[in-house]
Amino acid sequence: MGKVNVVVGMQYGDEGKGKLVDFLAAKADYVVRFQGGNNAGHTVVINGQSTILHFIPSGAFNDNICVMGNGVVLDLDVLQTEINMLEEKGVSLKDRLLISENAHLILSDDVEDSMNDKIGSTGKGIAPSYTNKYAKTGLRVRDIINVENDLDDFDVNARSKLLKFKKFLLDHSYLKFQIVNVSKVLNDAIDAGKYVLFEGAQATGLDIDHGHYPFVTSSNCTAGGACTGSGVGPTKINNVFGVSKVYITRVDRDGAGPLTTQMDKTMMEKIQKKGHEYGATTGRPRRCGWYDAVLNKHAVRVNGLSGVALTKLDVLDGLDEVKICTHYELNGENITDYPADAITQRRCKPVYETMPGWSKDTGECKTFEELPAEAKFFIKRIESLLGVPVIMVTNGADREKYIPINMDVLE
Ligand code: GDP
Ligand code: IMO
Ligand code: MG
Questions:
Q1: CB neighbours (10 Å) of residue 95?
Q2: For the chain, which ranges sit under pLDDT 70?
Q3: Domains along the chain?
Q4: Ligand 2 pocket test target in 72, 111, 116, 121 with most atoms within 8 Å of CB
Q5: What's residue 320's pLDDT?
Q6: DSSP 243
Q7: Considering only CA atoms, which residue is closest to atom 15 of ligand 2?
Q8: Could you tell me if the CB of 200 is within 6 A of ligand 1?
Q9: Is 337 helix (H, G, I), strand (E, B) or coil?
Q10: CA of 14 to the centre of ligand 3 (A)
Q11: End-to-end alpha-carbon separation of the chain, Å?
Q12: What DSSP line would sit under 134-197, residue for residue?
């Protein structure tokens, strides 16, 4: 029996999932996207060279097989641009890109329809494509194959769109990306002893069911989505790893979604600058806040996390003090569970534990022992609040920048 692990975001996205997936992918045979589309922007930095991936799994740099599951929504033009960009960097996906026949397509009308939505979506056609999926009016990858054989099954409008995609596939057949039954491929691989790694996009706080609707994306970004979005059953999953920054960010329009621990303007600008907190997909500045243990504990629960990677420790270097929000207060009561709706969340006030910061740069540290005492205390406090082991802390964007902690959880 093989090994199956899942990586998910614990906050509102951009936690550094791409970096953790790239790290874990060194040992994986398959890396699988199971939900979302090119609203995702996952960064991998190798020897100072940064690549942002919107579709292709962050395993691309490890020579493993990259898979797009049925839960993904696919814009073939964008996918092609990304394949070309990788080829220019010397990363070929030839014969190692598999696409589910059941993945839904993002059409140009979808992109247009999502441009000006009120919550500040990424404008990539995500919600319209999923809307069509659930209205049962969507077009899937398999329809591109079927259109010429079963012309009568498609209306004129759908037919012309599908034929355009068909031409696209023929034009790019040299890439040999294969359209397959992803469930069968992955289950056969697991039976043959392979390691399958699932790469979540977006995050728990943006999950259509477990985030604050409507300030969410349109898919299940939480661990269960790996099963429905690929056709691999829950009994096959060994571990689920969460990724969380040591602070929090959120990107949307005009502060539409709740961010209870939002920092004051001066601190936020400092963190935006130091942490380069500008959207990998949209370029918009990300709002920043202090570590929110209430949201992160919610993520531990709804994903059934085995362990957590804490990212961007170096961004907090040099601060006089750092804060962790342990719970909220609402009408004189302590709130320890993430409220189910955005209206309640907005009324909650954060209650902080404030602790001394550290002046030493953590960027050059290689072991937990080398970290300043205050940073160690901060990490240990987060770990005790979450109740699951911290696997590693990252201290720089580059692939090599991480500090192992409970790495045995990964085995
Ligand atoms: P994802 O969407 O979860 O994959 O994350 P993004 O790639 O959108 O955003 C994470 C950003 O933080 C990227 O620019 C990464 O290169 C960067 N990053 C990841 N880990 C670290 C770290 O430990 N320190 C610093 N300074 N940057 C990091
Ligand atoms: P990664 O995978 C951060 C946000 C958008 C918007 C909301 C809905 O890089 O973590 P959508 O276009 O999905 O309908 O937008 O979700 N959003 C993200 N924020 N990181 C992402 O992906 C995001 N994908 C969507 O800003 O508020
Ligand atoms: Mg991102």
A1: 11
A2: 148, 151, 171-177
A3: 245-302+311-410 (3.90.170.10)
A4: 121
A5: 97
A6: E
A7: 121
A8: no
A9: coil
A10: 4
A11: 14
A12: HHT---BHHHHHHTTT-GGGS-HHHHHHHHHHHHHHHHTGGG-PEEE-HHHHHHHHHHTT-EEE
